[in-house]
């Protein structure tokens, strides 16, 4: 998104982020939450999702959907997503530790190339991250 902001301006970047948020929201249930936490990072809370196959399927649909071009003022813009997944309780016992685990997994996904997803449980040395009380 830095490239979009740098070449087309922040209005274009904001428009693309809004489109991406709408695309993600369309892929989850009403009980789930999609929220932008800053920059080009979003968090998605899947309420009650505890089946890794189901979570993988949803995350892969996100990757597939988010790599479709976004049209801004007649111009096709290519985007993508690197997704890190943290699952309760194995990857963290509270929201802070879950976000930290998912963040670590996201960086692993980014290192693996564009449009990848990684589970925190696959991190070297385990994924359990505890936040201070």
Could you give the topology of this structure?
Layout: H1 2-8, H2 10-27, E1 33-38, E2 41-45, H3 52-66, E3 70-72, E4 75-77, E5 83-85, H4 95-111, E6 117-119
Parallel strand pairs: 5-6
Antiparallel strand pairs: 1-2, 3-4
Protein described:
The protein is of the alpha+beta class. The protein folds into 2 domains: 1-80, Reverse transcriptase/Diguanylate cyclase domain (Alpha-Beta Plaits, 2-Layer Sandwich), CATH 3.30.70; 82-133, no CATH class. The protein is built from 4 helices and 6 strands. The chain has helices at residues 2-8, 10-27, 52-66, 95-111; strands spanning 33-38, 41-45, 70-72, 75-77, 83-85, 117-119. Strands 1-2 form a two-stranded antiparallel sheet. Strands 3-4 form a two-stranded antiparallel sheet. The protein is globular and about 45 Å long. The mean pLDDT is 90.
List keywords for this structure.
alpha+beta, 6 strands, 43% helix, 4 helices, 133 residues, two-stranded antiparallel sheet, Alpha-Beta Plaits, globular
